[in-house]
Amino acid sequence: MYGDTQQIRLRATELRTLATEVRSRAGDLRSAAELAWTSTAAETFIEQLGTRAVSLENSATQLDDAADKLDAHATAVEHVKQLIEDAARWVGDRWNDAVNLVSGAVETVKDGAAKVFEFFGQEVPDFLVHQAKDIVASTPSLPTPGDRSWLDLADLYRSRGWTP
Q: Mapped to the 3 state alphabet, what secondary structure does 96-141 carry?
């Protein structure tokens, strides 16, 4: 969904290899330009070799820059993937707890007047049951693994104070 970071890093390595090859060709041109030629044509040719060498060195620098940007992108993708995994775990825990509480809480009357919720025989504050119902109502089903919407759900849960 977000790209294979190993493949992205492989492309960055390929670009760096290409940059090294391009620099080597620029060095070859510079070496050729150092020959002791003497003529008008030779001067023009040597000047053109120098111009081409500079152009190749600039291209090599651009290839290195592109490789750096690919590596940075791969790092950013890995970071987002980790954020999504963390959000999925956190939201999933909240959601599962809420579903269990909503499905297992029983409203009873205690001491003849007060209504209380019980969950497997333990009293549960009514605000937690209402919060659990809100969670279940706002999230009828969980997103698929790796989906960016886990981050949106984590933001929603935090903004509503649905934290442990």
A: HHHHHHHHHEEEEEECCCEEEEEECCEEECHHHHHHHHHHHHHCCC
| Final residue in a domain of this structure, among 79, 103, 132 | 79
What is the pTM assigned to this prediction?
Answer: 0.74
Same domain, 95 and 135: yes
User: Cα dihedral sign for 71, 72, 75, 77?
Assistant: negative
Q: How far apart are CA 17 and CA 144, in angstroms?
A: 38
Identify whether 138 is part of a domain: yes
Is 57 among the domain residues?
yes
**Which residue matches tokens 């060195």?**
57
Using CA atoms, how far apart are residues 33 and 110, in angstroms rounded to an integer? 98
Structural domain containing residue 60? 5-79
Contact between 64 and 15 under an 8 Å Cβ cutoff? The reply is yes
Q: Are residues 12 and 69 in the same domain?
A: yes
Output the tens digit of pLDDT for each of the chain's 164 residues.
577 999 999 999 999 999 999 999 999 999 988 877 788 888 898 899 999 999 999 999 999 999 999 999 999 999 999 999 999 999 999 999 899 888 887 776 665 555 667 666 677 888 888 898 999 999 999 999 999 999 999 999 999 998 76
For residue 58, the domain's CATH number is 1.10.287
